[in-house]
Fold this sequence. Notes:
CATH topology of the domain at 500-816: Neuraminidase
Low-confidence stretches: 1-6, 499-504, 819-825
Helix content: 25-40%
Largest sheet: 5 strands, mixed
Shape: elongated
Distance between the termini: 106 Å
CATH architecture of the domain at 500-816: 6 Propeller
CATH class of the domain at 500-816: Mainly Beta
Domain Topo IIA-type catalytic: 40-514
CATH superfamily of the domain at 500-816: DNA gyrase/topoisomerase IV, subunit A, C-terminal
Structural class: alpha+beta
Protein name: DNA topoisomerase (ATP-hydrolyzing)
Number of strands: 44
Radius of gyration: 39 Å
Family: Belongs to the type II topoisomerase GyrA/ParC subunit family.
Coiled coil: 408-486
EC number: 5.6.2.2
Number of helices: 20
Amino acid sequence: MSEENNDKIIHGGHEDQRFVDELRTSYLLYSLSVIVSRAIPDVRDGLKPVQRRILYSMNELGLKHTSSYKKSARIVGEVMGKYHPHGDSSIYDALVRMAQPFSMRYMLVNGQGNFGSIDKDPAAAMRYTEARMFEESEFMLKDIDKNTVDYIDNFDGSLKEPVVLPTRMPALLMNGVSGIAVGMATSIPPHNLTELVDGIKHFIDHPEAEAEELMEFIKGPDFPTGGIIVDGENIQDMYETGRGKVTIRSKYEIVEDNNGSSIIVSEIPYAVSKVDIIDQIVAYAVRKKENKKDSGIKDVRDETDKRGMRLVIELKKNANIKRLINDLLKHTSLQSSFSVQMNVINKGKPSLMNLKGLIQAFLEHRVDVITKRTEYDLQKAKKRAHIVEGLIKAVDGIDTVIEIIRNSDGVEDALANLQATIDVSEEQAKAISEMRLISLSKLEINKLTSELKQLTEKISYCNTILQNQNVLNDIIKEELDEIKNKFGDDRRTKILKYKSDLKKYEELIEDEDIIIVLTKWGYIKAIPSSQYKAQGRGGKGVKGLKISDNDSVLEILYTNRLSKLMIITSAGKAYQLPAYEIDMSQKTTKGKHIANYLDLTEDESIKAITTVSLKGDYEKDIMIFTKKGKVKKTSLSEFANARTKGIRAINLRDDDMVVDALVMNSLDDDVLLVTKNGMSLRFSSKDVRNMGRGASGVNSIKLRKNDEVVNAVLVEHDKKLMIITSKGYGKRTKFSSYRRQNRGGIGIKTVRDITKIGTIVSALSINDGSDILIFTKNGKAIRTTIDNISVLNRVTQGVITVRLSPDDEVVGMIVVKVDEDDENI
């Protein structure tokens, strides 16, 4: 007996087979059925069979976006009874998902009633909810009545259903899809429709384009729940290979009020439940408590409403905010990954495809649909043109037609006589016999002539489409532009820029003059300088910054968006922050907490901010001045690698802190120190040697009791020293009034009678013709021309520069460039 006969034995028409072989064959058939018929989408319309059947059934029920709603149970019954012989729950679950704004980037079903929530609340039973299609779905079904797609028998052979929809929407990439089959899974992220259309149009014109080139248009996934993709460098590899992973982080900000600090979460990762996040945060806090450690979390509240998501994590006063955020991102779903596996059904087989392949398959489908639609329109136009030609012949010889019909024996004889006498086809003869007498009017005859002309043009146009690929491509692009204009919107998910693209990104930033304002509580904002109008000397000012109760303005800096901010903190650390990273705000908004930008440690606050130009400043020195009169000079290149975590800038005593920092223009600059109680000392920067980052510095001025350094300015003889006091007195003085002295001395007086005018709060070097912007503790701001302020001798009290309310005082001053084109000045 052969080896084959050992496996198969025939017994009276029955075939015996080894159990393991039968199991293997049946399982393979089952797995293929699940892959093709249930879980994996078709690459052409991006739909699974159940989704396709739902939309097709809703179309047959007439549930357009303008029609009335119908019960979901009616739709589910239609789908199950005609096309999908599976449980009603699977059909309803698919319908519900297509109606959820947090599941679909562009919803296909317009649901009315409870369709679930992002908190994992289930949808109401299908007998309670109603639905109809969104207009996007109608664009997926357009032209389905023009023989554009193939049909197959339904499960019992009683009806026909489409194999695929003739979609104009790139639904596979637009909404993405996820599914688990047998031995295979698919997970394709959603994308922004506007970007997709631009990318597909570019691919039509440049079919050789690869993923890197397509990413100039298609930036990356765009999830319905927003969030931030933090590893954008992985996207290109994902698009090239068809598989990969992206990390999505929640969008949050740190805010402060009278109750302390809070983390406000406004967007969460895709496919993550807000309830799960809250439970995970609570579990994290409990674990910390069990380990006898303080989590720093006081309370967690869900304040989400119809205006949007708002998850509040209230913090204790001693919380290390940055460390806590890092822990929450690590141990909760506030940060999660999305695995990508672009498995699809392509030409009847499961395939792993990359971005280029998916776009190419969609375009091939569009070419096929438009070709079939054009052929349908062409045949229809030819058929109608043939009939119209016969009708025109009949009208031209109407007397003969009437005579033939009158003398014929019945309908069949009349049709035969018409064909023989006036040379028309059978179809034309039938149309002539059915022609009404009203068609003989002059107006109707003109209509027939005009219709034939239009039909001839349409036939010519259809032939052009079928013969010219460029014309067909133009139609695809026009239809793509239509859906872009109708349904396109802004990107929701932010993608962090690649490190390699940083310079390129900076080149895209539009430079402008801005004002950086920092408050005592740590709120920072960037404001266009043009938002402040110039006023006369002694004005009361306008609202310059929205601040909370008990907060006040701490630092003000005039710079531009393309500069970098060198930030020196009370802990003696240096940080670098590109100015363009600070959100642009209105002058009456509060801004964002500095912890959104820097990894400050507990009890660390900003004490000095100076601007560093991207061109040339790193070759210069920076001098750092402390409240207790210490000075230290270090090369700026020492801080070139300072980032959001900071590096050591100066060693400080416990009772000292940084108050100012100056970038030196040359090696022999003179520096002028001004103290709170009105003393000043000018000395050469050569008196201070360069030191390493870890040094403590040397004495700059000998301070009297209860005095401290306020500011240090560069001595520039084409400028003047401008001083402002806490009670609003100001004056300008020539630098020549201050003689050079040795570093470390007591110095000389620069104002008198501080009991009347208040202590000095700010000193600046300023040009004639400039404007200054003065900020007060309560958030007032006044912008005034410096020429309105008198030039006085060194030991004078100055003039009233800003009038203050009894509970207010000046806290700072900056120089603002005068723009001749600025209408506000």
